[in-house]
Amino acid sequence: MTGREFELLLFSTDPGFIVPAVEAGVSGIIVDWEHIGKEGRQTSADTQINYDTADDLARVRRSTAASVICRINGFGGHTPGEVEQAVAAGVDELLLPMVRSASEVEGVLRMAGGRCRVGILVETLAAIGACQELGNLPLSRVYVGLNDLAIERGERNIFRAVVDGTVERIRGCFNVPFGFGGLTMPDRGRPIPCRLLMGEMARLGCSFSFLRRSFWNDVGRDELGKGVSAIREAIAKSAGRGADAVEKDRAELAGCINAWDGSRMGPA
Questions:
Q1: Distance separating alpha carbons of residues 159 and 255, to the nearest angstrom
Q2: Which end of the chain is more exposed for a tag (fewer CB within 10 A), N or C?
Q3: pTM higher than 0.70 for the full model?
């Protein structure tokens, strides 16, 4: 992991959540526009599909000085309009999902024109095949989307890419902030204990992740500060492990993932 503070990013459009979350130490807020084709693609997956709007983005921007990120839809004819709407609303960073080629990302970078940062989600087989090219682009961050990647690979177990070397191979192509999975309290998380995912994030030098939907159930609003601090402390502890502890945790993580049958996780 780098010397910079690990970023914890929260999906929300509600200032009632955003303000106390940022005060508690959440690094940035993600407004989620991605919905085109997603319902059909994720029919059998336990995922959350948002239909956030430009008005939502503008409201979030007004509510916080923290970094505001917008996940737009996958590249298409709608992309120029979405980029302009997001920039007009004051976005700090765009996240382009379902990337399939470097040319798509280059297009978004041109559209953004330096007015905001651009990050990507690697969650397709085509993106994995283009990782070397993608790694040469001026990206702000890279996130591996385990759900959509598992769907493309025909896997029920969304964590398989963590233990079969896929996430690590993707990581090796990028020198920008990198993340995967999602976080809640270190002693929570199912089917995989969150502390084990933190350990793998630390091993791979990840510097950000998303807070899971279950984070709000695991940490009461009055305990947000303690919850964020506990996550950061656990990540720091993972980063300070010796080689033997790293290998022990990797073996336990692999055992948990390989034992899971891929059935629905519940809130994540």
A1: 11
A2: N
A3: yes
Domain spans of the chain?
7-259
What secondary structure letter does DSSP report for 222? Answer: G
Residues 6 and 207: beta-carbon distance below 8 Å = yes
Say what the pLDDT of residue 37 is. 77
**Residue 265 pLDDT:** 45
Beta carbons of 100 and 126 less than 8 angstroms apart: yes
Q: Cα separations (Å) of 160 from 153, 167, 181?
A: 10, 9, 12
Q: Which CATH architecture has domain 7-259?
A: Alpha-Beta Barrel (3.20)
Q: What angle, rounded to 10 degrees, do the helices at 194-203 and 243-259 form?
A: 130
* Residues 51, 72 contacting (CB under 8 angstroms): no
Those residues whose C-beta lies under 8 Å from the C-beta of residue 130, and which sit 6 or more positions away, are 99, 100, 101, 102
Cis preceding-peptide flag for 193 (omega within 30 of 0): no
What long-range pairs does 127-131 form, CB within 8 A, spacing at least 24?
Answer: 127/99, 127/100, 128/166, 128/169, 128/170, 130/99, 130/100, 130/101, 130/102, 131/169, 131/170, 131/173, 131/174
The predicted-structure confidence for 7-61, as pLDDT tens digits, reads as follows: 999 999 999 999 999 999 999 999 999 999 766 545 555 556 678 999 999 999 9
